[in-house]
Amino acid sequence: MAGFNGNWRSAVRTIGYRTGAVASGLLIAVAALSPGMALASGTKPGVPARLDPEVMLIDVYKALSENRLRDAQAKVDALVAAYPNFRLGQLVRGDLLLLHTQPIKTFGAAANAPADQLANLRAEAIVRLKSLRERPDPNLIPRPILQMRDDQKNVLLVDAKRSRMYVYERVGGRNGQFKLASDYYVSQGKLGVNKFKEGDQKTPLGVYYITSRLPGARLPAFYGPGALPINYPNEWDKANGRGGSGIWLHGTPPDSYSRPPLSSDGCVVLPNPDLTELSEAVQIGTTPVIISDDVKFVTREKWEADRQSANKMLESWREDLESTDPERLRRHYSRNFKAMRGQDLNDWMEKLKQANFGARRIKVELRDVTLFRYPEPKDQKEMIVASFTQDAVIGKGRHVTHKRQYWVREGAQWRIVSEANL
């Protein structure tokens, strides 16, 4: 898979034990871990391996794949001692205890639990271990990130396909590298992604920002140690009639370390220790949250070419705005333009004309520019969202406007399909 290291084989793995092959495949459900091919411990950045439940869990599977049952038992005992509310760990421990006395053929053989709960835990095991096998290539850059402001330290990338949040940190200046600082297992909407309306139990796709920090003391215990609301619906959502509200990044109830991959009403849910760590790292109103159905990666050379192309696109718009020629400016706008308050292209151009073209000459500068590829569904046009501060000298007056533009590729041209003053 482009941008990820490691291979994934979905076939159930049979692990040998004592006198014959023990079919514990659904215990592992997953792992495609054969002897000599296991993931090394401690590969998750920013978290000590001895404290990370996923790394502890992979060590259990490694021991099983090498027929070290006692070692696996000791490791899973340590896991549930450290994280007693980690239901997946408890389930694996129960199966391992049963495995001492008899072969097991199903995941959760030792558990007296409904089939749907076992299916949820199996799904969690699969995505957790898959994410540890498929690590983002450190030599590549996430395709959605084009340019960040100087004051933006990191960006949160939610990959719905992998039930994973990747936290990328900018290293160096605006044109510097991006480094994977940490990553977390996450849960999403019960019915997946691409939210459209209130109550559809889907997580939105798009580029958002964290708007506030809600402490756990002000919330029901269901949300864990707190919540980080995002600005869904954003300007593009509103222009397209998308509804709903209250999309948060939040934690879990005290009795649950984590939730199944598809289990929320639309929020992005993290284990409580991860939510606490994340909350300390984000900047309110500044940290972007990009929710995608499948994060792609590009080479640094491709990223640099794309970044320069996007900046040229924006610079051409600035020059034509400065020209005071409405027709030159109009060519940058799509015929399908729509603003979040329902204005069409003619309405918007009239608004720009009244604001900018009353003087013979205007001077426009753009600063604090951010550029992200918008993670639209696969059947939609390629899109870039640009946010910036516009400083305009019109006649004797100076005007400062915070803007956000949504650009779509129409053939060989990029055109603005929506715009908002923030």
Automatic annotation (TrEMBL):
Residue ranges occupied by any L,D-TPase catalytic domain in the UniProt entry: 154-292
Signal sequence extent: none
Alphabetized GO MF terms: carboxypeptidase activity; transferase activity
Pathway: Cell wall biogenesis; peptidoglycan biosynthesis
Keywords per UniProt: Cell shape, Cell wall biogenesis/degradation, Peptidoglycan synthesis, Transferase
GO biological process: cell wall organization; peptidoglycan biosynthetic process; regulation of cell shape
Classification via Pfam families: Cds6_C, YkuD
Domain of life of the native organism: Bacteria
Keyword match Cell membrane: no
InterPro entries documented for this protein: Cds6_C, LD_TPept_cat_dom, Transpep_catalytic_dom
Tagged with keyword Cell wall biogenesis/degradation: yes
Active-site feature positions: 250, 267
Family: Belongs to the YkuD family.
Name of the protein in question: L,D-TPase catalytic domain-containing protein
Source species of the chain: Oxalicibacterium solurbis
Species classification: Bacteria, Pseudomonadati, Pseudomonadota, Betaproteobacteria, Burkholderiales
